[in-house]
Amino acid sequence: MKTRLIASILASVILLSACGADKTSDKPSITSSKITVVTTLSIFQEITKKIVHTTPTTVESIIPSGAEPHDFEPTPQNILALKDADLFIYNGLTSIEPWLTKTLSFLPSTAQLNISKVATLRENDPHYWLDPENDIRAVDAIQKALSEKDPANKVMYEKNAQNLKTELRLLDMTYATQLKTCEIRTIVTAHDAYNYLAKRYNIEMHAIAGLSPESEPDAKTIAAIIKLVKEKQIPYILFETLASPKIAETIAEEAGVQTLVLNPIEGLTEEEKAAGKNFMSLMEENLTVLKKAMKCTM
Ligand SMILES: [Zn+2]
């Protein structure tokens, strides 16, 4: 039913665009800084907000707070909002945004920024924002796209992007240093979200579920993980904020170990937002959790 509704709205949107082919020229002139940016993941919203800083640009994420992005499907209102966006920034991989292909068909390519095109990818794994190197690439791509839409503020966008990249480099160095000397190099996580992070900081990751938190493990996988936890004396099972902790908790109980929260930062909960948390602060919290789970000495 929902899909049919979206399809009919899409059809009318396409029809409207066809009728008023010159509609785009009604948009604010190129020197105006009042542009509208819509993003999928909150990390892209955060990067964009930091780059546009105090300009009157609006930056909205279509994924509501507390929603698990793998489960998200745009509403007809989301689709209509996209039609008016000067720039739509998205992850680009179907393993997290399966609804994307049909939604993008009516958006001009100049209004689209697919971050997966600039990130270094590991197959179809969409969690590339957990490697700061990819966030730096995202910062560059977003800065460039904003500067093209709003050349009057180009110098300021470049400066803000530079500052943000410095923060990300510092974060990366802190991770590398503090995760270097640890008793344990294996972690067990709720879903397969940490390949990029694990690869970058030399961690062996075992996930209970697949690339999406909904891909439930079978009994054999669960048994293998319990065996691994016991053999490697892994002290904690790491579960996450936006998905159900049930299976992770069951495994921890059966293996006789504790749980900790490792956040894949796929989005922010209402509580995290209210507490002023963001990607940077959550990455710092994750580092504290990893150091505890891996028994690091730094
Ligand atoms: Zn995920």
Give an account of the 3D structure:
With about 300 residues, this protein is of the alpha/beta class. The protein has helices at about 1-20, 40-50, 75-85, 100-105, 130-150, 155-180, 195-200, 220-230, 245-255, 270-275, 280-295; strands at about 35-40, 60, 85-90, 110-115, 185-190, 205, 235-240, 260. A 4-stranded parallel β-sheet has the order 2-1-3-4, covered by helices on one side. Strands 6-5-7-8 form a 4-stranded parallel β-sheet, sandwiched between helices. The termini are far apart. Zinc ion (ZN) binds near residues 70, 191, 193, 264 and 266. The site of zinc ion has 6 residues, from loops.
Q: Can you summarize this structure?
A:
The protein is α/β, with parallel strands linked by helices. It is built from eleven helices and eight strands.
Topology:
Blueprint: H1 2-19, E1 36-39, H2 42-52, E2 58-61, H3 76-83, E3 87-90, H4 100-104, E4 112-114, H5 132-149, H6 154-178, E5 186-189, H7 195-200, E6 204-207, H8 219-231, E7 236-239, H9 246-255, E8 258-261, H10 270-274, H11 279-293
Parallel strand pairs: 1-2, 1-3, 3-4, 5-6, 5-7, 7-8
Helix pairs in contact: 1-3, 2-5, 2-6, 5-6, 6-11, 8-9
The structure holds zinc ion.
Total strands: the figure is 8
Q: What is the helix/strand order?
A: HEHEHEHEHHEHEHEHEHH
The CATH superfamily of the largest domain turns out to be Nitrogenase molybdenum iron protein domain
Instruction: Tell me what portion of residues adopts beta-strand conformation.
Output: 5-15%
Largest sheet: 4 strands, parallel
Mean pLDDT, rounded to whole units?
88
Q: Architecture of the largest domain, CATH level 2?
A: 3-Layer(aba) Sandwich
